[in-house]
């Protein structure tokens, strides 16, 4: 965490979870008293959803009071459902695999919030597991020491001005250290479970989220190796490339390996880790640069929120467009996913681009 914060005006985004609570503690332990904000984003008709926002608000209120911080609720409901939901539905309707949490950070936590209240502050602090470092006079997004919790992949699409204002007070900790601090300080949410769903959806199931806005569109499921129809899907948007669990077809295991959007056909492959589920080379377009505006030839990358980084070389094909050549085959590469690129030591994050059809 940055060392000279005494002259900075800091806003903390409190979610109700343990991570942002310990972020407040870290700042308070340095004699700072940041202003706390709870971003209110709930489903359009909350009575129809299993939403945990009321409990979140209670937790956030208790934490702010514990450290004598002012708490303000900022309503970003309209921005979330018009921007993040629209992005998600447009992508899945096109057969792509979007990441709503990535765009939530860019458009809401560091976007709409900044427009409404954050512009009055020098820094916006969150409970993300990520770090920043000034290297060569420039501020970089760098990884957390906790490989399982590291969230730089979710932050790789924020704008450079948003990165300059970002502060991650717990980014240097492991998750179990954060839990121990919360228990030592007797924070009200010390033992609260981490949220598992999409950002701000609470306990809402992702498929229910899709079904509400897109409905169902049944189509054939075809064995790509034999051309045999093995069943029907309820909508291509309910399936992701590389998916194994939840397909619901007998004689498995089956892996989702391809989507034909025009024909509304889901192709699957039979067997254990079939070759059809892996790729070594794939195109990436619209690369979003965080700090440096060019990429080295040798990098590491990830395409989903996992601890593993993959080694690769990059071949630039046009401005902001690359072909990724992975050293080893990568499972579940899907158009619409973000390919997040790091240096060879997977320390500095360069940004991310969207995987294209290829």
Explain the overall architecture.
This protein is 25% helix and 29% strand. The chain has helices at residues 18-28, 53-66, 77-93, 100-116, 152-155, 160-165, 175-184, 206-214, and strands at residues 10-13, 35-40, 71-75, 123-125, 131-135, 138-142, 166-167, 219-223, 229-233, 254-260, 265-270, 278-289, 298-302, 310-318, 321-331, 338-342, 348-355. The strands form three sheets. It has a six-stranded antiparallel beta barrel with strand order 12-15-14-13-16-17. The protein has a five-stranded parallel sheet with strand order 3-2-1-4-7, with helices on both faces. A hairpin with a 7-residue loop joins strand 13 (298-302) and strand 14.
Please tally the helical runs, counting DSSP H or I stretches of 4 or more residues.
8
Kindly estimate the percentage of residues that lie in beta strands according to DSSP.
25-35%
Instruction: Report the end-to-end length measured between terminal Cα atoms.
Output: 40 Å
Shape: globular
Strand order of the largest sheet: 12-15-14-13-16-17
How much helix, percentage-wise, in residues? Answer: 10-25%
Q: What integer value in Å does the Rg equal?
A: 21 Å
Strand count: 17
* H and E order: EHEHEHHEEEHHEHHEEEEEEEEEE
| Main beta sheet strand tally, sense and closure | 6 strands, antiparallel, barrel
Mean pLDDT: 91
Pairing-aware structural class of the strands and helices?
alpha/beta
Q: Which consecutive residue ranges, at least 5 long each, have pLDDT under 50?
A: none
């Amino acid at each position: 965490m940055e060392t000279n914060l005494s002259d900075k005006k800091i806003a903390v985004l409190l979610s109700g979870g343990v991570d942002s609570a310990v972020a407040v503690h870290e700042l308070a332990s340095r004699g700072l008293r940041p202003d706390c904000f709870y971003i209110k984003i709930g489903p359009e008709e909350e009575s129809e959803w299993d939403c945990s926002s009321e409990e979140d608000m209670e937790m956030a209120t208790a934490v702010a009071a514990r450290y004598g911080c002012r708490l303000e609720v900022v309503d970003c409901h309209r921005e979330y459902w018009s921007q993040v939901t629209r992005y998600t539905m447009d992508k899945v309707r096109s057969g792509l695999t979007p990441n709503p949490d990535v765009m939530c950070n860019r458009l809401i936590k560091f976007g709409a919030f900044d427009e409404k209240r954050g512009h009055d502050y020098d820094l916006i602090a969150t409970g993300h597991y990520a770090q920043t470092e000034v290297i060569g006079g420039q501020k970089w997004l760098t990884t957390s020491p906790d490989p399982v919790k590291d969230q730089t992949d979710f932050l790789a699409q924020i704008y450079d001005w948003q990165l300059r204002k970002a502060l991650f007070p717990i980014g240097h900790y492991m998750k179990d250290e954060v839990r121990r601090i919360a228990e030592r300080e007797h924070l009200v949410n010390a033992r609260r479970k981490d949220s598992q769903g999409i950002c701000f959806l609470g306990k809402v199931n992702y498929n229910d989220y899709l079904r509400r806005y897109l409905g169902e569109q049944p189509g054939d499921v075809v064995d790509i190796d034999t051309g045999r129809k093995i069943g029907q899907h309820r909508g291509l948007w309910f399936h992701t490339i590389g998916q194994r669990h939840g397909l619901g077809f007998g004689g498995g295991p089956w892996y989702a390996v391809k989507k034909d959007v025009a024909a509304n056909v889901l192709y699957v492959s039979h067997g254990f880790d079939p070759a059809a589920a892996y790729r070594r080379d794939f195109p990436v377009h619209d690369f979003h640069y965080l700090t440096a505006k060019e990429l080295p030839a040798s990098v590491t990358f990830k395409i989903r929120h996992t601890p593993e980084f993959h080694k690769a070389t990059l071949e630039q094909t046009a401005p902001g467009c690359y072909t990724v050549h992975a050293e080893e085959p990568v499972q579940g590469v899907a158009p619409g996913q973000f390919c997040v690129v790091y240096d060879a030591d997977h320390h500095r994050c360069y940004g991310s681009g969207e995987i294209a059809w290829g």
